[in-house]
Write a structure and sequence with these properties.
With 230 residues, this protein is α/β, with parallel strands linked by helices. 47% of the residues lie in helices and 13% in strands.
């Protein structure tokens, strides 16, 4: 049995990152397009956008920049949420992710999404793919508080509190270094989902408890749950 299979089988609580392990959010609507919309909000308000923010494709980075202009955060946040909700309409499902979520619940484990994306966009996507009933709680981005995004422990602790489960029962499955960092800070195990070249090394260096690769990663975890149910 692989280390990742062992970790997910032993956990009573599964915390699942959204963009990556569940789907590719910006597969149809590029993240660059959404970032451009956010930059336009800032420019229209007379804000000088820094060079690094001008060059980023990451909408979250633009939102974090907007936090320096607190009165503008709601304007940027609203445009970002609208962009995310549009994006999930053409998001690319991660192979076996929906089956994995169903297997988590069928095994009696608790399941929550812990993400820097908005809860409304996550709920939209889960509804589209028929998985919304599998997920007990969605800890999405706190409105107007980009400072509470992962790797801040707030969303992980919010999910565990909502489920009534201690950190020691949980594993967080995520594809970014921030997922591993927040796992370590919150005291939960972590499975790094290495869906791009070089990620396995970065996730391992960040301290992931175990790592699975792509595209077989979610299938590995699904198989582990299916085997344990026999």
């Amino acid at each position: 049995m692989s280390r990742a299979s062992e970790v997910v089988r032993q956990a009573d609580t599964v915390l699942l990152d959204f963009d990556g392990p569940v789907c590719s959010v910006f597969a149809g609507l590029p993240d660059t397009e959404v970032a451009n919309r956010l930059r336009k909000v800032l420019r229209d308000k007379g804000v000088n956008v820094s060079d690094d923010v001008e060059g980023t494709n990451d909408p979250m980075a633009v939102l974090e920049f907007a936090a320096g202009q607190l009165e503008l955060v709601p304007d940027v946040e609203d445009v970002l949420i609208a962009g995310e909700r549009q994006a999930v309409l053409s998001a690319e499902p991660t192979p076996f992710a929906t089956d994995f979520m169903a297997a988590v619940r069928a095994s009696g484990k608790r399941l929550a999404i812990v993400s820097n994306n908005s809860a409304s966009a996550i709920r939209d996507y889960l509804t589209i793919v028929g998985a919304v009933t599998h997920v007990e709680f969605i800890a999405g981005r706190a409105y107007g508080r980009p400072d509470l995004m992962k790797p801040h422990v707030f969303p992980v602790r919010e999910a565990l509190r909502a489920l009534g489960m201690p950190a020691g029962t949980a594993v967080l499955i995520g594809d970014s270094v921030s997922d591993i960092e927040v796992s370590n800070r919150a005291g939960v195990a972590s499975i790094g989902y290495a869906n791009k070249p070089g990620k396995a090394e970065r996730l391992h260096a960040a301290g992931a408890t175990a790592i699975v690769g792509d595209p077989s990663g979610m299938l590995t975890l699904l198989t582990a749950l299916s085997d344990s149910a026999r």
